[in-house]
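Amino Acid Chain and Its Fold in Token Form
===========================================
Purpose: to set a sequence beside its fold so the mapping can be learned.
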Amino acid sequence: MKITLLCVGKIKEPFYRDAVAEYRKRLGRYVDFDVIEVADERTKEHPSQVEREAVLAKEGERLNKYLDRFDRRAALAIDGTQMDSVGFSKWMEHTMNDGCGKIAFLIGGSLGLSDDVLFACE
């Protein structure tokens, strides 16, 4: 099993970097765990809807370069469904029992994730 954390932008905060390092250490015996950070787009302070969609589309293209159409995807998005630990473990178990060899957890930039990336996660 391969698990990838795919992020728009760099993970900057030390506590997040520490958390990623801890999970890499814990998961390393069981799965191949990787972190990929793609460049984020420069965004105005208050972008118009058209500018917002253009930024999200460019960031989505960068994410999609690292995704295979058969990867199981999970968007870590503000508007997403929140799971407790039991629900998440059941989702992981179901995903692994389905024979899925790769899972990608996606984190968007300051504007979130594009609709095409989100819809591919459903």
Observations:
- The longest strand covers residues 2-8.
- The chain has a mean pLDDT of 90.
